[in-house]
Amino acid sequence: MAEVQSELKNGVLTLTLDRPPVNALDLKTIAELQAAFKQAARDEGVRCVALTGAGATFCAGHDVSEMLAARGGDISYRAHLLATYNPLILQIRQIEKPVVAAVNGPVAGAGLGIALACDMRLAADTARFTVGFTGIGLSLDSGVSLLLPALIGLGRATEFALSNEAISAEQALEWGLVNRLVPAADLESAAAALAASLAAGAVGAFGLAKRSFNRAILPNLEEALDYEAHMQEIASKGAEHREGVAAFLEKRPPKFK
User: Fold this and answer.
1) Cβ(58)–Cβ(111) under 8 Å?
2) Which of 44, 54, 97, 154 is 20 to 30 Å from 163 at the Cα level?
3) CA dihedral 52, 55, 61, 65 (to 10 degrees)
4) Per-residue b/e over 122-157, b at no fewer than 16 CB within 10 Å?
5) Measured between alpha carbons, how far is residue 95 from residues 87, 201, 202 in Å?
6) Distance between CA atoms of 52 and 68, rounded to whole angstroms?
7) Of 118, 100, 122, which Cα lies nearest the Cα of 48?
8) CA–CA gap between residue 146 and residue 225 (Å, rounded)
9) Where are the extended beta strands (E) located within 145-237?
10) How far is CA 149 from CA 107, 111, 175, 176, 190, in A?
11) Do residues 138 and 183 make contact, with C-beta atoms less than 8 angstroms apart?
12) Cβ 139 vs Cβ 109: under 8 Å
C-alpha cells in the first residue's frame, strides 16, 4: 500500500503522508515522496503541490525503529541522508512550482525540515513544531540548521533545538514560521483555496521568483545539507544517541551523561 497518497485536481497535486499512527517516515515513504516530486516537476499539468498528513499528525519525523535497525546493521547515517532527505529537500526547493505545506498537527525532526522547505505553510491551530533531533542524541538534518534560523532567527532556533520544546501554532505564526493559522476543521479547505489560487497564477514567473529566493537567501543549502550529514554521522556513533533511542522506545526521559 502506498504511504504517500497522491491526487491531481485542477492543476493541484495533493500529496498526503499516510503512515499511521503518526506518519513517521521510513525508506519507502521517502522514496515515494522523491518519486512524486520528480513526476510533479516534469508534469505540465501540475501547477502547484500541496503536502499534508493523514489523521491528526503532519509527520513525526523518521521512524525510530528503523534507526535502531540501521544501528544494528552499522549503516552510515551520512550515506542514508545523502540518499534520502538531502535530495528530497533539494527537490522541494528546486521544483519551479509553488509547494504549500498544510500542517494539520504535530510535526518533528525530518518532518519539520520537509515543512520548512516548502514555500508556504498553513497550520491548524492544533499544530506543534518540535525540532526533535537532540532529544534522541542527534544533530540536525533535513535542512533544519539553515531553514529554521532563516525563518525565526538564530537565537530562537537554538533555544528550541536545544530544549526540544514544541513551538505552538500561535507562536509559529507570530514568528513567521507559518504564513497563516486556521482552525483545524478549516485547514483542508483553506489549503485547497490557496493552492488553487497559486495554480491559477503565473507559475512560470513563480518558478523564477523561487529560483531568485533560493539564490538570495539559501545559496548554501546544498552545502548545509552535506555538512549536516557529516555531523549526523558523528552523532550517530555516540553514547548519547544510544541512550536517546533507548529512552524513546522505553517511553522515559533520557539520562545523558
Assistant:
1) yes
2) 54
3) -140
4) bbbebbbbbbbbbbbbbbbbbbbbbbbebbbeeebb
5) 12, 16, 15
6) 27
7) 100
8) 9
9) 166-168, 180-182
10) 17, 16, 11, 11, 27
11) no
12) no
Contacts of 207 (CB under 8 A, 6+ apart): 96, 97
d(CA 91, CA 98): 12
Grid cell 540501521 in the structure block, residue = 70
Alpha-carbon span 53 to 102, nearest angstrom: 8
Query: Which three-class secondary structure state does DSSP give residue 212?
Result: helix
Residue ranges and CATH numbers for the domains of the chain are 4-184 (3.90.226.10)
pLDDT of the chain, 257 residues: tens digit per residue: 889 999 999 999 999 999 999 999 999 999 999 999 999 999 999 999 999 999 999 999 999 877 766 655 678 999 999 999 999 999 999 999 999 999 999 999 999 999 999 999 999 999 999 999 999 999 999 999 999 999 999 999 999 999 999 999 999 999 999 999 999 999 999 999 999 999 999 999 999 999 999 999 999 999 999 999 999 999 999 999 989 988 988 999 999 98
